[in-house]
Write a structure and sequence with these properties.
Layout: E1 4-7, H1 12-20, E2 27-31, H2 35-44, E3 48-51, H3 62-66, E4 73-76, H4 92-97, H5 115-130
Parallel strand pairs: 1-2, 3-4
């Protein structure tokens, strides 16, 4: 069974949308968690999902934590942040429909860039976005 674990602050509107969803029985709202508890959830996840606004220029900082886990990362939303080299490609609906228990990234998937390479690319991208 696919189960969506939500961690963090949700608005009343977001909670109402979850409650009204036919999939609400498969959603678990953990609320705000300690860093240790959040990392434990991430480590046990079959996939990690983040949603970013079209107004953002870089993915949410949560991606830094996700890149340290050995699970597929699914990025939802559109915007300039999609050009960030840390952003995983792919259609979120397709990626979610293909999830299987215990699924891990294929061995031929390119490894995330080193922190130094990612930092240089990110700083270059930010310089472009602000100029």
């Amino acid at each position: 069974t696919l189960r969506l674990h939500l961690a963090g602050r949700l608005t009343d509107r977001e909670r109402a949308a979850i409650a009204a969803s036919p999939a609400s029985a498969f959603c678990v709202d953990h609320g705000v968690l300690s860093f240790e508890r959040a990392r434990a959830l991430q480590a046990g996840a079959d996939a990690l999902i983040f949603v970013a606004s079209s107004k953002m220029h870089v993915p949410p900082s949560k991606i830094v934590e996700y890149l340290t886990c050995d699970a597929p990362i699914i990025a939802c939303g559109d915007g300039p942040w999609r050009a960030d080299p840390r952003t995983p490609p792919g259609d979120p609906a397709h990626l979610l429909s293909d999830l299987r228990k215990g699924m891990r990234p294929p061995p031929d998937r390119p490894r995330p860039p080193s922190p130094q390479t990612a930092s240089r690319a990110l700083l270059g991208f930010m310089a472009q976005a602000t100029s």
